[in-house]
Design a protein that fits this description.
Layout lengths: L11 E7 L3 E2 L4 E10 L6 E7 L3 E7 L9 E4 L5 E7 L8 E10 L6 E12 L5 E12 L17 H22 L1 H4 L10 H7 L10 H9 L1 H6 L4 H12 L2 E6 L27 E8 L8 H22 L5 E8 L1
Parallel strand pairs: 2-10, 12-13
Antiparallel strand pairs: 1-3, 3-8, 4-7, 4-9, 5-8, 6-7, 9-10, 11-12
Helix pairs in contact: 4-6, 6-7
Length: 328
């Protein structure tokens, strides 16, 4: 079943990145290209240009007879990897290409620009041309060399040794520079979320979607201040289910006292008084839209079990609850 692109949506998209924007001579770099077809295309040609200053050594492409490229060297030293796909590209397909290259020796700093050019025939027979560019900054001299006395500025051996040392340390420096972002629940790597949650004594349920786990972690401090209250439990359920919860506490009602009223042990005031109990009503969309009734029932049971686990963990220990889930 093919996908039909939405109005004003291009039938072909191209993304192009490199695995590092800064390099030294002798280091390797990988050029990536991703092509996505949002409509069926009769044919497609992918050209990935490797500029002079980079010596290509390997490539990767989708398997098949059209996974082997033509390598076209140009007079300016550029090498172009050209993949010709002479068959229909199905709608919704994704194609990944990569070229590995090594930075050539240089005596001066360079800015090497790479480009991916994709041409294809569109659904209406029109010609499609899409490009994407990236860049690599090549430094001829190591940054650490600037920290030494001027006596070493022209020492080529010292410069090469410092480049080698810097290439080992640079990834560690990058992690340190980005350290504050690892502590931000909104953008931290998903594998770090349980570790961040442990800082505030929160256990994240892996069954929750990643977006909801991040929201829960952001609100953790506020939710702990409101723990055991109706407001805190309502917000907790709203984050975890993305639905609106209504909580009714069963206090005494219709209280009437007369001159003959007698109070004592075991006497509850008002009608419908069930102390330390509450009812939770949640309005949620169906847990599953599957045509299989058994699958829908299983997903509903899983969701109810998840909600009951939240209520059991967050309610006051001495209270009991009744849960109603209304499907909308």
């Amino acid at each position: 079943m093919s996908k039909t692109p939405m109005p004003d949506t291009p039938p072909l998209t191209v993304a192009h990145v490199v695995d590092g924007g800064k390099r030294y001579p002798g280091e390797s770099v990988i050029l990536y290209a991703r092509i996505e077809a949002l409509a069926a295309l009769p044919n497609m040609v992918v050209s990935l240009s490797v500029p002079a200053g980079l010596d290509p050594s390997a490539y990767s492409a989708p398997s098949g007879p059209d996974g082997t490229p033509w390598v076209v060297p140009l007079e300016d030293g550029t090498n172009t990897y050209r993949w010709e796909v002479h068959r229909e590209v199905p709608a919704g397909s994704r194609w990944d290409y990569a070229v590995t290259a090594r930075v050539a020796p240089t005596e001066q700093d360079l800015l090497l620009r790479t480009r991916v050019l994709v041409t294809a025939t569109g659904p209406e027979g029109e010609e499609l041309v899409v490009t994407a560019c990236s860049a690599i900054a090549v430094s001829a001299r190591g940054r650490y060399l600037q920290l030494l006395p001027a006596l070493y500025a022209d020492d080529e051996l010292m410069g090469r040794l410092l480049m080698l040392f810097e290439s080992f340390v640079a990834p560690i420096e990058q992690i340190i520079d980005l350290l504050p972002y690892y502590f931000d629940p909104r953008i931290a790597p998903v594998d770090m979320l349980p570790w961040l949650a442990s800082w505030v004594g929160l256990v994240l349920d892996e069954r929750l979607p990643e977006k909801r786990r991040r929201r829960l972690l952001l609100a953790a401090a506020r939710l702990f201040r409101q723990r055991g209250t109706r407001q805190g439990l309502t917000e907790y359920l709203a984050i975890c289910t993305e639905g609106q919860a209504r909580i009714v506490e069963h206090r005494s009602s219709n209280l009437h006292l007369s001159g003959t009223a007698r109070l004592g042990p075991g006497i509850a005031l008002g009608r419908g008084n069930v102390p330390h109990t509450f009812t939770v009503t949640l309005r949620l969309p169906p847990a599953s839209t599957s045509a299989d009734a058994a699958e829908r029932e299983r997903r509903e049971a899983e969701r109810r079990h998840l909600i009951e686990g939240i209520l059991a963990a967050e309610k006051p220990a001495h209270t009991r609850y009744t849960l109603h889930i209304e499907t909308v």
